[in-house]
Backbone:
């Protein structure tokens, strides 16, 4: 049995006070000047330590207050009230919600799975990944002693091409080529976010985190400087069309590279493989309406890894703008299955992977692994405020975060995500994540249920319309 994969989480306090969901409003008008104000009796001394952070424009009481409501109930003139923090309301957008951002901050700080004592109070159906319900039929006995107990659950996945069959000669020697294959102990790789400032520091943090997690970070080849070279074994240089140079020294050191798809990409693959046969080659493919056809063509031409990419809201491009990543992933997966090519290629998907549950759901839809980007920025305390896109200063100084602090926060985030993935696998009765790939029987898709079950139940039988009677 393989050694259990362990992610070294360690609590890392934030540099800036996080924006709390609620805030305290305390008015001075009408104060009775009690001998001892309710603010002085706060068990958490929130009012005593209350300050205002000018750099991040944050009232620290938003995070100091533990919502015990002692001050609210104790003030005789009801001058202390709790209300929703207006700054909290402005976080994120319709996809990267304020709840996702705040939970990611918490996981990056503690490395622990967020727990709600009141249980889940949200809707049971939504767009995208929220329309998938995972099967937890084994929840009564996921393991004998927890996800880190004696029963081993593997989250290891393979990157690379696998032979569809084996052939041997009369002497028992294999007569077919052996493809390079790399195992990573977590079905997650890191990729450079499209937003944010301080990109050079973020890339260094990505590289260091990839080494700690024993996975990969995808970074544009032109940005691989001397600070990143020590981590080259855990980096995947990415080349834009026309930028690949077969004499690039990086190709001799790296274990994998990534090429943006273009009409002549298969020629570049052949040229690279003839010179660097042990080099893994990934093709990043923007998800469009022709994505399944293109994936089949690339897999048939010998592609080893296909990286299907959507935008930050998990929507496709061009004629697939209305399609979600889950649907595009299922489409590609099923096409490769029909072409008897699915087991020959590794499928990585990215764009809009915002929470730990998205990892499991993307794999259920047919992916082997996922690539994440914006969660890395949020782990570094980014608020997705878009100030950087507008040319304004970053309120959390992303470019100034120390690389060790940033690395540990990214490691903490992935540690929490890995534990959640282990819980999902244990609750399903699975002992390795490879078995989850394309296992749609382990989930319920609301669209399918609505079409197959609810629609017939509520459809009107033919001819059942009640005709209006002629009153005469």
Residues:
């Amino acid at each position: 049995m393989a050694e259990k994969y362990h992610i070294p989480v360690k609590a890392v306090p934030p540099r800036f006070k996080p924006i709390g969901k609620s805030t305290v409003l305390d008015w001075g008008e009408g104060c009775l000047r009690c001998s001892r104000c309710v603010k002085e009796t706060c068990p958490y001394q929130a009012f005593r330590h209350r300050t205002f952070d000018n750099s991040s424009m944050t009232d620290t009481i938003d995070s100091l207050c533990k919502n015990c409501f002692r001050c609210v109930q104790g003030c005789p003139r009801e001058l202390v009230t709790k209300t929703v923090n207006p700054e909290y309301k402005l976080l994120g957008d319709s996809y990267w919600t304020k709840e996702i951002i705040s939970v990611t901050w918490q996981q990056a700080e503690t490395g622990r799975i967020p727990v709600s004592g009141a249980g889940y109070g949200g809707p049971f159906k939504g767009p995208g990944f929220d329309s998938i319900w995972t099967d937890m039929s084994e929840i009564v006995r996921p393991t004998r002693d927890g996800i880190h107990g004696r029963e081993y659950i593997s989250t290891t996945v393979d990157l690379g091409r696998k032979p569809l069959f084996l052939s041997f000669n009369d002497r028992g020697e294999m007569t077919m080529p052996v493809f390079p294959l790399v195992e990573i102990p977590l079905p997650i790789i890191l990729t450079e976010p499209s937003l944010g400032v301080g990109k050079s520091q973020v890339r260094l943090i990505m590289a260091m985190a990839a080494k700690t997690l024993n996975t990969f970070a995808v970074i544009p080849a032109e940005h691989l400087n001397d600070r990143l070279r020590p981590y080259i074994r855990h980096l995947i240089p990415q080349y834009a069309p026309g930028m690949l140079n077969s004499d690039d020294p990086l190709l001799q050191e790296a274990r994998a590279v990534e090429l943006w798809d273009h009409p002549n990409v298969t020629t570049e693959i052949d040229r690279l493989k003839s010179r660097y046969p042990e080099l893994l080659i990934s093709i990043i493919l923007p998800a469009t309406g022709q994505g399944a056809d293109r994936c089949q063509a690339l897999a048939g031409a010998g592609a080893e890894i296909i990286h299907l990419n959507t935008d930050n809201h998990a929507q496709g491009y061009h004629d697939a703008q209305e399609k979600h990543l889950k649907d595009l992933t299922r489409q590609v997966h099923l096409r490769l299955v029909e072409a008897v090519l699915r087991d020959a290629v590794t499928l990585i998907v990215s764009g809009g992977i915002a929470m730990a549950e998205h990892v499991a759901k993307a794999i259920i839809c047919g992916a082997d692994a996922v690539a994440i980007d914006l969660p890395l920025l949020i782990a570094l305390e980014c608020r997705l405020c878009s100030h950087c896109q507008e040319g304004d200063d970053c309120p959390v100084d992303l470019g100034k975060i120390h690389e060790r602090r940033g690395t540990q926060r990214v490691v903490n985030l992935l540690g929490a995500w890995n534990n959640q993935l282990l819980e999902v696998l244990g609750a399903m009765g699975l002992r390795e994540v490879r078995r989850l790939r394309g296992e749609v029987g382990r989930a319920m898709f609301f669209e399918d249920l609505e079409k197959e079950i609810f629609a017939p139940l509520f459809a009107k039988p033919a001819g059942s319309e009640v005709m209006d009677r002629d009153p005469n």
